[in-house]
Specification:
The structure holds two protein chains of two kinds. Helices cover about 50% and strands about 10% of the residues of chain A. By secondary structure, chain A is of the alpha/beta class. In chain A, the strands form two sheets. In chain A, strands 2-1-3-4 form a four-stranded parallel beta sheet, sandwiched between helices. A four-stranded parallel beta sheet of chain A has the order 6-5-7-8, sandwiched between helices. In chain A, helix 2 packs across helix 13, helix 5 packs antiparallel against helix 6 and helix 11 packs across helix 12. Chain B has three domains: about 130 residues, no CATH class; about 220 residues, NagB/RpiA/CoA transferase-like (Rossmann fold), CATH 3.40.50; about 60 residues, no CATH class. In chain B, the strands form two sheets. Chain B has a six-stranded parallel beta sheet, sandwiched between helices. The two termini of chain B are about 45 Å apart. Classes of the chains: A alpha/beta, B alpha/beta. Chains A and B meet through helix 1, helix 2, strand 2, helix 3 and helix 4 of A and helix 1, helix 15, helix 17, helix 18 and helix 19 of B.
């Protein structure tokens, strides 16, 4: 998918933090904002944002998903990019809002917004053409690409593109790297046995690489894989890609 | 709540050996498919072409079926229509009785599994012998197929050797695949010769010529359809395609997606019963066209894509859920992603299969490999909606999906309402997240299903909203 709809670097972007990052991983959000600002892009963060509505959409509660999505839609009226540090939430707005709003009076607004949505790594690579200088110590990482980045948005390669710019970062590939980690939102609690089996297999594959850190563009995967590792008392440091990039490149 | 499906899953996950074996075979099938896709661009073109062929066929389903029927009948194939599996079974039974037949040989057919024809005929004193090696193994074990292409995928070589030994006590015990296959082949030869009736499935029906196409690798399908004096083919009505020219691309795509083969060892094109001067072939060919909910599915513009399926099994081989739980846990004739969307539409969302749409992470691996690009995750999402949507149908009209609304639980619906209210009231939302950060060290370690294998996530000290409020950025 060609993710690039603006031809030149925008002066300002909206930032959508996502509910998961808001409550559990704010460092990831702050790091993403810092990265964007360093590239000379003004960041606008509407404080009334909450959740994109995906949990309800994926659970079949479309009325509730629509109400929540509509509340977000109102917050991003300017025709500037909307950058989201999560492929999962970006996919909801970019791919599923057009379905969710189909036939609704505000369908045109939803389509307009969907066209402006960027997943963070895709925005950094495709739009900003970011150049990074690694200031960090040598480290080995597993770069876990989320299923939404890989398949729904087709931006799964951006994670690696960014990491390859950091000369002191070694990228290790776990077995079955394209396999889902078993999170799947409410799937994890509706089918806990299957989710657990998938998460355990993923955690084992990640650990088997011997990597020092786990990074991803989606905090849902990190929460799932990391939660399993912690339960087994074999936690390994994990970071959202924005955190790792900011930490290793800030002066 | 422990449902049938959940207990099946628990059982499947306990069988370590079976799980490991499943993964090995599934990984091999994935590798075979990958190796067969030498030219990405050409393969994508082939997918697009076949998608269009199938979409066109399903769009014109009634017309093509009528055209097929008249062409097949003209060549002497007897066409029977069955709305239900019971009717289809009854038609088979009637044919058997007319020929005073008490035994039939069977080629591999998922529609025959859907009909449950073996059990039905057995209850009427008629024996069915599965002649596909995988199906025969499953039959010896008294089980059901665990995969639509590889029915005995769950059985390893040793289990098969033991089964064979128990079934044929006269044969020396062997774990050698070639030896086992030879023994079965010898046994089957006599059965093919003696059988009064052969029953097979169908891969495609060609409307413009009235041809039945059946692909297979073992030659047993050809034996079943040519040696016995009567051949009965059973198929779902969705297998029709318009033209003979549509067939080569479809077969090419089917075999590459299924097993990575460029073509199967046998491609059977059945045009008529034996004609004067023919050296072989049955005296009678019957085709049973089974609906069993398919025409209803064809009525919905989104759901009808389910019927585009060409039964290659690629989605099954690439599904991370199937990889964990195997085929039997689904409790349906067709497992995996395609079963997850097809079976609830046929059985109803209020049946056991109604839970299957929940058994997906929506990872999209199925849609990525589906040769005819069925948007399986989107249909799963749709079925989840159908399952919990409020009943808006009048009592007289049939719901789009049988059992729609049956999954709506008032507690769950209330929780989503409250959630939506919080997320549409930022003041409330922010107070709640603030509260969570304050209680971060006092939240329960046990968070139900989530914490069975995971530690509970811990709220941050300060939310992103609050942290960014203090930063020098715009908050319009």
């Amino acid at each position: 998918m060609n993710n690039r709809v603006v031809s030149e670097k925008p002066q300002a972007v909206y930032f959508y933090g996502t509910c998961l990052i808001d409550l559990l991983y704010p460092h990831a959000g702050v790091s993403a904002v810092e990265l964007l600002r360093r590239e000379g892009v003004a960041v606008i963060y509407p404080q009334s944002q909450t959740c994109c509505g995906q949990p309800a959409w994926n659970s079949g509660y479309r009325d509730e998903a629509l109400a929540v999505a509509r509340a977000q839609l109102a917050l991003f009226p300017r025709t500037i990019p909307l950058v989201i540090p999560s492929a999962s939430c970006a996919g909801m707005m970019k791919v599923h809002y057009p379905e969710l709003f189909r036939g609704q009076p505000d369908e045109a607004d939803a389509l307009n917004m969907a066209g402006r949505v960027y997943e963070l790594t895709a925005f950094l690579v495709d739009v900003l053409d970011i150049r990074l200088t690694d200031l960090g110590d040598p480290v080995s990482v597993v770069a876990h690409t989320s299923c939404t980045a890989r398949r729904e948005l087709g931006v799964g390669d951006k994670l690696h593109t960014l990491l390859r710019q950091l000369h002191n970062v070694e990228i290790l590939e776990p077995e079955n790297s394209a396999e889902c980690c078993g999170f799947g939102g409410t799937f994890a609690v509706k089918q806990p046995e299957i989710s657990a089996a998938m998460a355990l297999e993923k955690a084992a594959a990640v650990r088997a690489t011997g990597a020092q850190r786990l990074v991803s563009q989606d905090c849902g995967c990190l929460m799932n894989i990391g939660g399993v590792m912690e339960k087994q008392n074999q936690a390994m440091p994990r970071q959202h890609i924005a955190e790792l990039l900011w930490e290793r490149t800030k002066k | 709540m422990t449902t049938d499906f959940r207990s099946n899953v628990a059982h499947a996950l306990k069988q370590d050996a079976v799980q490991t074996h499943f993964r090995t075979v599934v990984d091999r099938l994935r590798a075979h498919r990958q190796a067969a896709l030498t030219d990405d661009a050409a393969f994508e073109q082939l997918r697009s072409r076949c998608r269009a062929i199938r979409a066109d066929a399903i769009r014109r389903l009634p017309d093509l079926l009528e055209l097929f029927e008249s062409n097949a009948q003209r060549s002497g194939i007897q066409v029977h229509w069955a709305e239900t599996t019971l009717q289809a079974n009854q038609i088979v039974l009637d044919i058997m009785r007319r020929h005073r037949a008490t035994f039939l040989v069977k080629g591999k057919s998922m529609v025959s599994e859907e009909m449950g024809v073996n059990a039905f005929l057995q209850s009427h004193g008629i024996d069915c012998l599965e002649t596909d090696l995988g199906e025969f193994i499953v039959q010896m074990a008294g089980e059901k197929p665990a995969h639509i292409i590889v029915p005995a995928i769950h059985k390893n070589r040793r289990e098969i050797a033991h089964l064979m030994h128990r079934h044929f006590p006269g044969l020396p015990y062997s774990e050698d695949i070639e030896t086992l296959a030879q023994s079965v082949r010898r046994f089957m030869r006599d059965k093919f010769r003696a059988a009064p009736v052969g029953l097979t499935g169908v891969n495609f029906m060609v409307a413009e010529t009235g041809t039945l196409c059946l692909v297979e690798n073992e030659g047993n399908g050809r034996m079943c359809s040519t040696v016995p004096p009567v051949h009965i083919a059973v198929t779902g009505i969705e297998k029709v395609i318009a033209r003979l020219d549509d067939l080569p691309p479809l077969l090419n795509l089917l075999t590459r997606s299924a097993t990575g083969q460029p073509i199967t060892a046998y491609v059977n094109m059945i045009n008529s019963p034996r004609r004067p001067g023919d050296k072989d072939g049955p005296d009678e060919v019957h085709l049973i066209l089974l609906d069993n909910g398919r025409s209803h599915i064809a009525g919905d513009p989104e759901l009808l894509k389910t019927l585009h399926c060409i039964r290659c099994g690629a989605c099954i081989n690439h599904c991370p859920v199937y990889r964990q739980i195997g085929g039997h846990a689904y409790g349906t004739v067709i497992p995996g992603p395609i079963g997850t969307i097809l079976e609830p539409q046929k059985q109803g969302l209020d049946a056991a299969a109604g839970e299957l749409p929940q058994a997906s992470t929506l990872c999209g691996a199925c849609a990525e490999v589906c040769p005819v690009r069925i948007p399986i995750p989107a249909i799963i999402n749709r079925l989840r909606w159908e399952s919990v949507r409020k009943n808006q149908q009048s009592q007289n009209s049939r719901p789009v999906v049988p059992g729609a609304g049956s999954g709506r639980k008032s507690l769950e619906a209330t929780i989503w309402k409250i959630w939506a209210w919080c997320c549409t009231h930022p003041g409330i939302y922010n107070r709640l997240t603030k509260l969570a950060t304050c209680l971060r060290n006092r939240l329960p370690a046990d968070m139900g299903a989530w914490t069975v294998v995971r530690k509970a996530p811990k709220p941050a000290q300060v939310t992103l909203h609050e942290r960014l409020r203090k930063m020098d950025i715009d908050h319009e």
